[in-house]
Amino acid sequence: MDPMKPEVMLKQVADLPKMMRSQTAAFDHDIRNVLTPLEFQSLHRVYLVGDGDSYHGSLAAEMAFESIAKMNCEPLSAMRFLEYAADYVPTSFPNDTLMVGISASGRTQRVVQAIERARKASPNIRTVAFSGQAGSPVMEAAERSVQLKIEDLGMSPGIRTYAASLMGLYLLAIRIGELKNKYTMDEANAMRAEIASLADVVEASTPAFDKTAKELAELFKDSPSFIFAGSGPSFGTAVFSAAKVIEAAGIFSMGQDLEEWAHVERFCYPDEMPVFIIAPQGKGYWRAVELAKSAKSLGRKIIAIVNEKDQEIAPLADHVFPVAGDVREEFSPLVYHVPADLFASYLATKQGKFLFQSDRGLM
Which helix (DSSP H) or strand (DSSP E) does residue 177 occupy? Predict the structure, then answer.
C-alpha cells in the first residue's frame, strides 16, 4: 500500500457538511426501526461500546443519552466491557438494557467479542451494531444493526465516519426519548433537524478554522507534545482530537478532562506547552474559564475552540478557533472536532509525515 498523505484529511473535512445534510434522514429512518416501540419503551440503560474513534464517540455522546433519552449511559472501551462489565450488567426486566457496539469498519475484533459476551450474559440485553459496512462481523454478531453508510473517499483517519457515528448515536437518543414520552413528536423532529443544520455551522466555521490551523502548524511544528482539554461531551472531543494529531503527525498528544488537567498535567514542562481548550457553552464552561486563566498564568500557549461570540476564554487565548453559530452542548462534538482535523493534517504536511506512519509499513 502506498503511504497515506495527510491531504486526504482535508478532503474528509470538506465533505462533512454534504454528508451531514444528506445522511441524517437516512440514518434516522433505520434507527427508528432498529427496535420495536415496546423495546424502546422498555429500556432503562444503555452501554456504548467501541475502540478508538468509536470509543471517543461514545464518550462524546454520553450526555445526549442522559439529557435527551433521560437514561443512564455507560460509554466503555470494548475490552473494558468485555472483561470488566458484561458479566455485571444489571438486568431486571426484559429488554431493559441496550448495548450498542460501534465499529466503522465492522471488523473490530474486541467489539465483536463484546457483543457476543453481552448476548451470553443475559437475554434481557438487546444488542445493536452501528457500522459503515453491511454484513460485517460486528453486524452479524448483534441481534439488530444499523448501517451508517457514507460515500467512500479513500482511507483516512476517521473524520466522516466519526461524525456518522455521532449522528447515529444522537438520533438513537432522540428516538428513545420520543418513544418514552419525554418529548412530543414535533420536539423530537426539531432535534433531528437541528442535527442536520449543524452542517451549516461546520461550513460557516471552516474557513476561519482552516486559516488558524495553517498558522498553528507553522508555529508549533517543533512542539514535542499537545494537550486537548474539555469536560462532559467535550472530553470525548478532546481525546478524539488528540488521536488525530497522533495518527497524522505521530506527535504525542493527550486528551484530558479539564479538572484532571488542573490536578496533573498542569505541572508538566515545558511552560509554553500548547493547550487546546474545547469549551462550548454549557455545564462545564465556567470551569473552562477558570482553567484558561490558570493556564495563562503558567505561560501555556492557549488555543481556544469556542463560540465566535465568546467573551471570557477568547481574550485569554493566544489563538482562537471561532465556531460560527450556537450549538447545544450535547451536539457540540459534531462541530468542535473539526479544528483538530485540520491542524493535524497541516502539521503532518509541515513535518513531511505520512498518516499512521504508513511510510514505515505500520498500517
Answer: helix 160-179
H/E stretch holding 359 reads: none
For 179, other C-beta atoms within 10 Å of its C-beta total: 21
What is the mean predicted confidence (pLDDT) over 280-289?
A: 97
- pLDDT band, residue 362 (cuts 50/70/90): low
- The gap from C-alpha 129 to its chain's centroid, in whole angstroms, comes to 17
How much is the pTM?
0.96
The per-residue pLDDT for 361 is 67
Strands (E), the chain: 45-50, 72-77, 97-103, 125-131, 144-147, 225-229, 252-256, 274-278, 301-307, 319-323
DSSP characters over 323-356: E-S---GGGTHHHHTHHHHHHHHHHHHHHT--GG
Q: Which cell numbers hold the place of 161?
A: 465516519
Residue indicated by cell numbers 513531511: 352
pLDDT tens figures, 35-78: 999 999 999 999 999 999 999 999 999 999 999 999 999 999 99
How far apart (Å, rounded) are the C-alpha atoms in residues 83 and 78? 9
Cis bond leading into 339, ω under 30°? no
